[in-house]
Design goal:
The termini are far apart. The relative contact order is 0.22. The protein has 191 residues and is α/β, with parallel strands linked by helices. Residues 3-17 and 115-130 have low confidence and may be disordered. α2 packs across α5. The chain has five helices and eight strands.
């Protein structure tokens, strides 16, 4: 009986966990340690304000959980106003920003198809089904600048993939994993 319960728990965990993956590739100046910087401005250069806010929030939450100070550009530079380059520079300097991280979406690809049917009986209920799954792949462009020297510290790309029955959940999971992976790879591993 214990073996059956254990087996069913393992199967449930496999089906209820996310299959999101993020691959990041890029070039960082070898002599630069990101942990030496105190304040990071996260700027998601997206026309879609919903996605911009969503990804900036994910980076903000992840930086905050690692005790790294960051600012969301959407709160510093309002999308409702027009700014000159000088105005933006002044806002960034007044906020004490040392690093500007600019993220752009290069492409979003979706593929919808039927997933294979699988039913797992558990306590009279069945989990699984033959619902249509949506596979989403997002390619990002990432550039990290030193605000004072205007020097590029990092240049790279990231690809996030997720499969779920809801497009919005795919996007949310990709954004969350991308923020976590990037910060762990370049900010935390530097410590």
């Amino acid at each position: 009986m214990k073996k059956k319960c254990c087996f069913l728990c393992i199967i449930l965990v496999c089906f209820l966990t996310s299959c999101v993956s993020t691959k990041i590739e890029g070039f960082k100046k070898p002599e630069v340690n990101f942990y030496e910087y105190n304040n990071i401005l996260v700027f998601c250069n997206f026309e879609n304000l919903k996605y911009r806010k969503q990804l900036e929030n994910e980076f903000y939450k992840e930086f905050n959980s690692k005790k790294i100070k960051s600012i969301k550009s959407i709160e510093l530079i309002s999308p409702l106003k027009s700014y000159s380059n000088e105005d933006v520079s002044n806002l960034i300097k007044e906020a004490g920003v040392e690093i500007l991280m600019e993220i752009k979406i290069l492409s979003i690809n979706t593929n919808s198809g039927d997933s294979s049917s699988l039913f797992v009986p558990v306590g009279g209920f069945f989990f699984g089904g033959s619902d249509s799954e949506t596979e989403v792949t997002i390619d990002f462009d990432i550039t990290v600048y030193d605000v004072n020297t205007e020097e590029i510290l990092f240049r790279g790309t990231a690809t996030g993939e997720e499969e779920d029955d809801d497009f919005s959940e795919c996007i949310e999971e990709i954004f969350e994993d991308f923020a976590e992976e990037f910060i762990d790879m370049y900010f935390v591993s530097s410590l």
